[in-house]
Amino acid sequence: xxxxxxxxxxxLCVLLTVVVQLVRFLRADGDLTLLxxxxxxxxxxxxxxxxxxxxxxxxxxxxxxLAYQLSKLGVSLVLSARRxxxxxRVKRRCLENGxxxxxxxxxxxxxxxxxxxxxxxxxAVLQEFGKIDILVNNGGRSQRSLVVDAxxxxxxxxxxxxxxxxxxxxxCVLPHMIERKQGKIVTVNSxxxxxxAPLSSGYCASKHALRxxxxxxxxxxxxxxxxxISNICPGPVQSNIVHNALTEEVTKAVGNGxxxxxxxxxxxxxxxMLVSMANDxxxxxxxxxxxxxxxxxxxxxPTWAWWIxxxxxxxxxxxxxxxxxxxxxxxxxxxxxx
Length: 338
Ligand SMILES: NC(=O)c1ccc[n+]([C@@H]2O[C@H](COP(=O)([O-])OP(=O)(O)OC[C@H]3O[C@@H](n4cnc5c(N)ncnc54)[C@H](OP(=O)(O)O)[C@@H]3O)[C@@H](O)[C@H]2O)c1
Known about the structure:
Blueprint: H1 3-26, H2 32-40, H3 44-47, E1 52-56, H4 61-71, E2 76-80, H5 84-97, E3 105-107, H6 118-129, E4 134-137, H7 152-180, E5 183-188, H8 201-220, E6 227-234, H9 266-278, E7 283-286, H10 291-300, H11 302-321, H12 329-337
Parallel strand pairs: 1-2, 1-4, 2-3, 4-5, 5-6, 6-7
The structure holds NADP nicotinamide-adenine-dinucleotide phosphate (NAP).
C-alpha cells in the first residue's frame, strides 16, 4: 500500500471518529466526564450501599425520586422538607418499593430558612443513625420574574433559602465529616449556577453563590481527600419547580407550572446524580440539548454564549409576558430534534 493511500485512510478514520463523537455529543444528556463514569466507572449499586444519606427537599420532585432510587440501594435515609405529610407519603412509597425497613427511614421536618433549627436537626440524625455519610443539599426554589418587577424580598428569600440555608446545614454536618475524615456533600445546583437567564436573576445569583462557596470549601478540604464536595448542575428536569417558583412578590405563587413533559425525566436526572456520587465527581452537568451545549459555550466561549442567550432570552421573556411557560419554545425544538 502506498504511503499516500495510507495517509488518506488515516485521515478518513480521524474524520469518522470526529463525526461519531459529534453525533454522540448531540445526543448526550450529561457532561463527558459524567457519561464516561456512567459507562466505565463505579456503579451506584456497588458503592452507595450501607450508607446514611440525608436528603433535603425530599417531599417532591428531584428529592422525592432520589429517595426512591436510594431506597432500592439499601441505604438508611433521612427525608427532610417542610411538608411532613408529603415526607410521610414518600417514606411509605420507599417502604413499599425499596429494600428498606421502617427503622431505616427517618422523617425529619426541616425549614432551610430556619437556620437556628439546623444544629438540632443534625444532632437528631446522628442520634438515630450514628453517622452521616452523604448530605444531599437539594431543597430550593426557582424564580419567574423580571428584575424591574421583583421586590427585594424575593431576592432575600432566594438567598436565605437556596444559599444561606444550604450553607448553614453544611456547616452543621461538616465537623462530623471532618472528625470521621470521610463523607460526601452533594449539592443540587443548576446550569443556572454557571450560565445566566432572564426571569431568574435571583435564582442564578443564589446558585452562582453556592457554586463559589462549595468550590472554595473544596479547596479548604484538600487535606481531607475522603470528604467529597460535589456540585450537581441540572438543566430543565420534570418536577414542581416552576409551580413553586417565586414571582414578583414572596407571597404570590406562579400557580400553574405548565407542561413539563419536554424536560428531562426526573428518574434519568437522579440516576446520573447517583453515578456522580458513586464516582466522587466534583462537578457534573446533567442536561439535554441544547442546554448542555449552552453550558459548554458559557464555560468555554462566553462571547458566543452571550449572543445566543440574548436571542433565546427574548423569546423566554415574550412567552412569560403572554402567560405561557417561559421555556415552552423548547417543546417544539425537542419535537423537531428528538
Ligand atoms: N427541576 C429543575 O428543572 C431543576 C433544574 C436545576 C436545578 N434544580 C434544583 O433541584 C432542587 C430540587 O428542585 P425540584 O426541581 O425537585 O423542585 P420541587 O419539585 O419544587 O421541589 C423542591 C423541594 O424543596 C423543598 N423546599 C422548598 N422550600 C423549602 C424550605 N424553606 N425548607 C426546606 N425545604 C424546602 C420542597 O419541600 P417543601 O415545600 O415540603 O418544604 C421540595 O421538596 C432545587 O435546588 C432546584 O434549584 C431543579
